Amino acid sequence: MLSKPQNLILLLIAVLFSHSVAAISFYRYENDEGHKVITQTLPPNVVHKGYEVLNERGLVVKVVPRALTAEELDALEVEQRSQHQQAEQARRDKKLLSIFSSPKDAERARDRKLEALEVYISVTKGNILKLKGEYNQAQSQAAEKERAGQAVPDFLVEKMDSFARQIQQAEESIEEKEQEKLVIRKAYQEDIDRLKYLQDQKQKALEGR
From which residue to which does any coiled coil extend (predicted)? Predict the structure, then answer.
């Protein structure tokens, strides 16, 4: 009759053995002849072809797909890029539709911005005319001094320089606003075209029901 320590040792050996048996895995893959092969050791040269991991009862516990070819990887990258672009476009469309309800709505918003710029340009042009008048007046005064053989006063020179700078800054400001008008027209036209497309797609979907 075995003693208690011996019984414990035998029990521990049985448990360890059962765990080792349960941990055994098998691999199933297809060889070059197209036949299914099951082995406990997976040859390195078949890993890229894909394989299945089986437990001791022959049940599939894991499937490892074959490695993709360079062409397949390129195609997958193209597909993923396309999906990303579509998701990004859908996000932009959602934002666009939250701002404008229709192409006409976008056109009105565009026209309001352009009108504000036109008002600014018109006012600035009026200021330029006024500045040029004051510059010409100061220049006439300086010419009179020179014709009289007198030196042109510093304050008069500084005044003409100031008018000239203000005129230049105003003209540059007008040019900036003109460029801004072009940017606004281009940006809004893209939004308007997209809204028209989305509107057409919605109408086609409704007609196809």
Answer: 128-187
pTM of the model: 0.61
Q: Would residue 72 count as lying in a domain?
A: no
- The model's pLDDT over 101-129, given as tens digits with 9 standing for 90+, comes to 999 999 999 999 999 999 999 999 999 99
- What is the pLDDT at residue 57? 85
Residue 36: domain span: 4-64
Contact predicate 104/191, CB 8 Å = no
Are residues 95 and 59 part of one domain?
no
Structure tokens, 144: 């009179």
DSSP lists the bridge partners of residue 53 as 27, 62
| Inter-helix orientation angle 154-207/70-99, to 10° | 110
CB 163 within 8 A of CB 134: yes
129-186 pLDDT, tens digit each:
999 999 999 999 999 989 999 999 999 999 999 999 999 999 999 999 999 999 999 9
Q: Quick check: is 198 in a domain?
A: yes
Whether residue 123 is contained in a domain is answered as yes
Note whether residue 73 is domain-resident: no
Specify the DSSP element, H or E, that contains 27: strand 26-30
Q: Provide the token pair at 56.
A: 């001791």
CA–CA separation, 93 vs 206, rounded Å? 19
